[in-house]
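Standup notes
- DV: blocked on the single-chain target, sequence here:
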Amino acid sequence: MRSRWLGLAIAVMKMRIVTAVLVLVAVRGLEAQVPRVPASVDMMAPESVTSDGLTLSGTITLPRDTAAPFPIAVIIAGSGPTDRNGNATAGTLRANLYAQLAWRLAEHGVATLRYDKRVLPATQGHVDLAALTLDDLAHDVSAAVMSLRSDVRFTTTVLVGHDEGATLAIRAMRFGLEADGLVLAAAAGRPMRVILRDQLQRQVDDAMLARYDGAMDRYLRGDSVGDIPSLLEPLFVAVNRAFMQSAISISPSDELAVLNVPVLIVQGETDLQVSARDARILQAARPDARVVIVRSANHVFKRVADTTLAAQLPTYTNPRLPVVPELVDAIVEFVESVSR
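- DV (later): unblocked, structure below
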């Protein structure tokens, strides 16, 4: 059982870092695996976002039966090779979270923009993976928001960051991006290195944890990691080093504390990747933030009360499982509150 849980911990951590396989896998074919757009929304695609000489593919989803202008939420994808729908081009993530969230928000009169991360194959332009940093992805957040500024269809702009996307949203605002509200969904409150070690500590013995600590120190210094267990090797891929160096010690809570923007924090009760502890840390940084803990919701905001691997994994791979309505309702109420 320990090896199975360790496999989950490694899979979780691999989703947090950009892997070299990104450029080798096409995103075509995912659309055929996801539900059709409901009749209650009007999808306009493609919508391009230009950032650092790159063109990122995106989708704007509009309410069908509501007259413009609309408030708009910019949905920012989580870690790894995650596309605008909330699915991954590598691994087994097919939760379709962001597409479903966009559809549900449209039913409540909120438009959305969601876009592919720059590391995905649909991006036009050259991406140097070995030089990629967290702040490059934060710059894409700013570019996405700025692409909407002159569009008369939209009024209030709210950032909705999920997982690592929450950190990217915070980081973009630290660099000067302005928005009317900030939603942090399944967001880390602690630095990435602390969370990674916490996940490992619950799954391995002290000897392997010590080997991990030493290897991570060497990896971040730019040295060879030396001899490590094969199970840990995916954490120390050379092409990911610059990204990890840029991201590993950033404290989302410290950066959130200095932002002057209304904040909503939404956390799933049965999330195995981050926890209510992170939500509390974020709330401590911003006592005025509203916090919603969703009962029996996991990291991809699907309903599952069981925290075992067998119960959790199917929710990551089934695009037809609905997003929990509490997430949608909380965002809609928040958007309305900052639009007044």
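- Follow-up: The longest helix spans residues 206-221.
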